[in-house]
Amino acid sequence: MKIKTLNGSLLTDGCSSLWPAINAPFLSLRGIPTAAVTGDRYQAIFKGILEGFDAITGCEVKDLYKFAHYLQSIDEDVPSELATLVRAFGKWVAFDYAGARNLFKTHIQVYPTDVQAIFFLHMLDFCTGRTAELKPLFNFCDGYMEESHPLYSFYLGIKAFVLCESGLFDESLVVGLEAVRRNPDNIYAIHAVAHALHEQGMWEEMRDFLEDTKEEWIRNPGMRMHVYWHLAITYRKLGNPEAAKMAFLEFYALKQDRFAKQDLDAVGFLWRLKLEDIDDHSFDEVWKELAILWSGSIGSSTSHFHNMHAAFAFAGANQPLLIEKMIAESDGFGVEPDTHQAGMDVMRAIACFARAEYAQCLRLLSCSQSLWPMLGGSRAQRELLSMTQVFCQTYLSMQSELERMLVNH
């Protein structure tokens, strides 16, 4: 049952009802308009929460502590729509991810149509390698969510991405396309559709979809680089390397500033090229720049998904010493134990790759493979690890065959 509050808003909408004007066009993900003006102190608190949330999804210790400081400044006089969320974020920044997850779920049990809160939980899961675990929650929320809800398209977009990460690619595509149909500006839904198409290898459909919707997604500062990454990969898969290279150069130029931490996609695309031709040096200067930019994450990140990309950047720049330094600085702080073990194995594997020790790289990747989802990110992004495996396997097979031929001759 949907219970009305005194001002007529739906209690089940939770924090999403506190500031409708800011929620309606987007979900917070580095996209709060600079001109956004809060109307009361609760909206001001909510804005601070949105800004802090955007920052901590980068998984940097400094941002987590800055947000913790902000949360401590919030007095106890907050509306019920925010109270449990403030506690949940308090657990998140204290690295108690299970506690944060439970509090987010507690809030959603009370406010099952609070799409913003669902997104908070979804991003916590994304950062900590539990994205698919959100799927059962939709069965509960579906019983309350109405198509007339102003954030229904965003709800479907989140659901589509979770379905994709759960391996339900066909269902994900249907839900994602419906979300885009309802709101063509919903970049999170566009991104979910791209992931569903990627997982099914529907490259022609991906190209057409992303080109047709480009006018919408290219305007979003928070996710346009990632969607462009999908388009660059698509052109590569379709055998159009020039279009792929142009797409890469265009999305790399979209960084907010030179030192903005938006290089996951650049690393992800260039590593694919390196695996296709290990002797190609056309992007050596970009690799050097990426290595410099990622060096700041050594010892400061709580995400082995980010550390994985940093390691690839260092390997691409032929700097295995930086990977070894990152391994030495990684003590598991802020990371769940199994995730830490998997992350360490992955970093060691990439260090081996950088030293051309492909047999050891393959062994380490194979040992940790079942734990890769715990690193965080998406299937498409973690695909770099399986592609690296294939490279090592192919290289070692070729070496073995060459040695056999030499013996026979």
TrEMBL record:
Belongs to the TTC38 family. Keywords: Repeat, TPR repeat. This is Tetratricopeptide repeat protein 38. Transmembrane segments: none annotated. It comes from Pseudomonas duriflava.
